[in-house]
Amino acid sequence: MTDEEFRNVIANSIASLVAEGKETDLKIAKVSEQIESVSKQMGGINENIGHHAEQFFQNVFADNKVFGGIQYDDIILNMGYKDKTGKVEFDIVLENGNSVAIIEVKNRIHPDFVKDLAEERVGKFRKYFSQYKDYYVYLGIAGFSFSEEVLSEAKKYGVGIIRQVGKGIEVDATGLKAYK
User: Fold this and answer.
1) Which terminus of the chain has a lower count of CB atoms within 10 Å, N or C?
2) What is the per-residue burial (b if ≥16 Cβ within 10 Å, else e) of 61-91?
3) CA distance 61 to 78
4) Where are the domains of the chain?
5) Per residue in 93-118, pLDDT tens?
6) CATH topology for 59-172?
7) 57: closest CA among 153, 176, 171, 174?
8) How would DSSP label each residue in 79-93?
9) What is the largest distance, in Å, between two alpha-carbon atoms of the chain?
């Protein structure tokens, strides 16, 4: 093989590798777009399930304003506050003149959420909604499924568990704590 033929073989090989690299880059870009599309769809599905859970539990509590054996007079849905220091929203707030029940709704609850609800969000509620400063505050988490770890954390913090049972709910308020 002459030097000229050898250079041509190398040049053709390099050209072929460059073309294959460009083709691979196009395939990677296409797969990345597909992954992004599926991720958006999954996020949308998860968001829809979350809205379904929230709507279900809000409707049930709107019809029957009882939590932990306490009767409430009013229900406030998606009670929120926002300023330059932050924002907070509570899915369901029940009120009766001396007590409030804050019920957060999630499709699937993470154990850290229970801790955050009891240790952080109650303080934010007191800070942003000072009209309830002298009220007893009871906490609940409502959802369609609960892990044993979540149930354990809820008992530890005195947070009630609200589950769907048929068209209604089941409330486990064993050890429910009044936050004052």
Assistant:
1) N
2) beeebebbebebeebeeebeeeeeeeebebb
3) 13
4) 59-172
5) 999 999 999 999 988 888 999 999 99
6) Trna Endonuclease; Chain: A, domain 1 (3.40.1350)
7) 171
8) EEEEETTEEEEEEEE
9) 98
